Amino acid sequence: MPPRGPRVKAEKPRDARGTLTRTLRYMVDYRYLVLVLLVCTFASNVGNLLGPSFAGKAIGAAVGQGQVDFATVAHYAKWMLAAYLFSNIMSFLVNQGMMLMGRRVANRMRRDVFHKLMVLPVSYFDRNQAGDIISRVSYDIDVVTTSLSSDLVQIMTSVVTVVGSLLMMCIISPPMTLCLFVTVPLAVGFTRYMGKRTRPLYSQRSAAYGKMNGYVEEMFSGQKTILAYAYENDVCKEFSGINHEAADAYCAADTLGMTTGPTVNMINNLGLSLIGLLGAILYMFGLAGMEQISAFVLYSRKFSGPINEIANIINEIYSALAAAERIFALLDQPEETADLPGAQALTDVKGEVEARHVSFGYLPGRTVLHDLSLKAEPGQTIAIVGHTGAGKTTIINLLMRFYDVDSGEIRVDGKELHQLTRSSLRRAYAMVLQDTWVFRGTIFENIAYGKEGATREEVIAAAKAARIHDYIMQLPDGYDTIISEDGGNISKGQKQLLTIARAMLYDTQMLILDEATSNVDTNTEQKVQKAMQELMRGKTSFVIAHRLSTIQNADKILVMEHGDVMEQGTHAELMAQKGVYYKLYASQFE
Prior knowledge:
Layout: H1 16-25, H2 31-62, H3 70-119, H4 122-127, H5 130-172, H6 174-177, H7 180-221, H8 223-228, H9 232-257, H10 260-284, H11 290-331, E1 353-360, E2 369-376, E3 381-386, H12 392-399, E4 407-412, E5 415-416, H13 422-427, E6 429-432, E7 441-442, H14 443-447, H15 456-465, H16 469-474, E8 482-483, H17 492-505, E9 510-514, H18 522-536, E10 540-544, E11 556-561, E12 564-569, H19 571-577, H20 580-589
Parallel strand pairs: 3-10, 3-11, 6-9, 9-10
Antiparallel strand pairs: 1-2, 1-4, 4-5, 7-8, 11-12
Helix pairs in contact: 1-11, 2-3, 2-5, 2-11, 3-5, 5-7, 5-11, 7-9, 7-10, 7-11, 10-11, 15-17, 19-20
């Protein structure tokens, strides 16, 4: 089996601007919706910005020459209420629209990631934990789309509010506006400084969550083994350590990030104090009226409020960028190499397979197979035996072109594998693996998985051949019985019989059987072996077996050891040699 890489690789942010650009591209398909939302955002902010102006006029009418003009105050109060009501309605529409777009972006992003996973080479899944991959599909995409649907609205609103408030303040009192040139550069500079420090921490947080999810998925899949070995306390301790690392990463990012908002708020409050002091001086010298000062103060709050909010959500944006980087890192993974120009579909398969001087290693400099040569004539059964790690599964990986050879070549019906399309090559094989796979669906659907349009009669015939028909008929709904996720409501032996029936239905000229009866009891195995003999008749079959009693009738047996074919021949020939195979056979029957 290929080596697994480290569980998690802590990613550092590479290009925040590029990541943001790629994320925003997902919104291009919804540009008209975005345009409408921008118009609504602008309208909402116009209403928001008119409010302080009306408030200032109302205050001016109230503090005139010592006499309150209630009619004027009421007039401007009504307009202020209408402006804020209109603003809130527009804001509600914008929020609803962004939530809708966020859901659609999440759907498209998950679709892209899932489609990418379907075309990635097997080596990617060998190197990465399933839990870490699932974390990118679920947690990371949720973080990104949540940021799009909420933080983006906030930023759009804040930008319009800041620009509009600044413009109104410049109109009301240019001298008081000068106070902003002290506080705004401080706020912006501090925010940028903190951003550089927090971005790597958010990347580490996403990686830590991926590691934790990977560990949880791994432990859940092996729960029965954990219970059988009474290893629960040790697993809990290990998880506690991993969980502690994730919590520390979360705390480190948020602890530092949460200092940004309060600090920027303090800087803005300093600006408000300067505005109040300068306004009082201008009022004393008759250079500004109470209407101007009150309106300016309200606009200054409108101006500083969004800056505070941006400072607060900037951490969420950095978290979203870190999550987006992990998603795009997956999307940027190299896919399986494309078929060569002119590659032909494998048709009219005869089943002649030949390997010539094949060498291969999963990692550079670590060769697993050394100078492998074999030939299978059409209809022959080739058994591959040897100790664990001898290279048996590697041969299957190369036959199916899950991996490409480092040197040498493999031919099917006289054609080198690179001359054939991958899809046609893989369709030419039916596989029954030791690690059985069934999905949530009916028994009929699971058996018919490999043959589109399979009839009920064909499925029943395959089930009878696999000796599982009688068991199926005992179930409440027969072939319409629903199998739970990963076949949790049936035994391992029954799952294996289902996969054997699936292979029997999938009519091909070549078979790969990897310990196909390992989960079947001895009595059932004898029945299945007869069915397997019928299945293999006339087909080229590659059988990996540890029970040597099951491959005595093979046309050729390859004895593997440390990546080399030590012996090959029929059962009788190898027993007569009294070499490696003889010792393996004797060890099983002593």
